[in-house]
């Protein structure tokens, strides 16, 4: 996976991870749905609740089911920059990044399971964090941008992802298969479009350091859907022809990540957020 502030300590138990990510256990639970100020309508009884998850847990109203599309979106998110909060009975998924436009798009598609998009660190907070610890060159260019957080509500359906962390490191299950929606979210998080001003065509790369010892498995995921990446030290690189077909197969780019679908350097620079 590419370096990301949200999932650097996936090897730690969930309590420690939550505190490190959100500042406190209380804050983590608040962002996961405890202490919500907005109300959400329960489709079962028609009433509105500030703590809809508690209502679903403690009433005769059933938990609504995540749609197959929502589960695919969350699978792709978790393959990339997302993380699973797995304390308690039911899990939730969170993702932190600077790309607020994308998170708001994702928030709409995950309703009523998303708790919204919230500011995690302001630009000034990011500056203070940069002063406290040295950062690798990849993050230096974006460290001063504010970061935003999206957390889902807890759901029994998300417990299916617990097994991804059995070794305290995120590992994809052997029965995983790629779909356009899954790949699209994974590429938004861990993908790169390699494109230069003088290059004729771009090529895409997926960085997957957490699975670099299972390169054959990752390669097989793409082979099953007709693509043939080359593995290079945790990076899965697609040639120009595969890149064009892969991005077409993935579908229209989500808002905020259109630049990763660009077909020219000019389009890439114009679409990439500042």
TrEMBL record:
Q: By its UniProt entry, which Gene3D superfamilies does this protein fall under?
A: Homing endonucleases
InterPro entries assigned to the protein according to its UniProt record, in alphabetical order: Homing_endonucl, LAGLIDADG_dom
Family annotation (Pfam families):
LAGLIDADG_2 (PF03161)
Q: Which domain of life is it from?
A: Archaea
Domain (Homing endonuclease LAGLIDADG) spans 72-223
Protein name (Swiss-Prot/TrEMBL): Homing endonuclease LAGLIDADG domain-containing protein
Organism field? Halosimplex aquaticum
